[in-house]
Amino acid sequence: xxxxxxxxxxxxxxxxxxxxxxxxxxxxxxxxxxxxxxxxxxxxxxxxxxxxxxxxxxxxxxxxxxxxxxxxxxxxxxxxxxxxxxxxxxxxxxxxxxxxxxxxxxxxxxxxxxxxxxxxxxxxxxxxxxxxxxxxxxxxxxxxxxxxxxxxxxxxxxxxxxxxxxxxxxxxxxxxxxxxxxxxxxxxxxxxxxxxxxxxxxxxxxxxxxxxxxxxxxxxxxxxxxxxxxxx
Length: 232
Hints:
232 residues, mainly alpha
């Protein structure tokens, strides 16, 4: 849990570096991608990163049993994304103190939970993005899908880097998507691919649809370049 807590402190001190802005929705999505990535790789569990029971604790604090995430509950009681972002850290600190008082916590840095040191070789498109494309509301919710997608992928990517798991070939290919989007729109402003696409879209939902169209175009372009190189 030490590594996870350190990450939270870094995000708290410099949210722009990780999630672009102090937003609880972005934070929730980023942490989901990060934790899911570590769990998938076998490096941690929900309990070992300290989040086990936090959802129920927040529900109890808010005296609600509605089917909302901890982020949605905190946001509802805060009034703005920024206030909710700051409040999360206050709530999480209290949660950890209460948890530590109720039982002895074993603090360990993230380590491989399995003796098998092979890692899942995800195809980021076929196994992650294609599922999201089929059922975007299920994975991304209804409010800010393109932004949440970006945060999920950032969290997942950071998880792999922090445990020194090399990216798969599809993941390396995805890393070039940012530069390709910048070149396509003639933009070199330091904005993320999601922000660039959103800028040229009516709303988040159109931006998500446009993302999949652009990513398909990007993949086809890479395939054609590879064919040309092989033929040459």
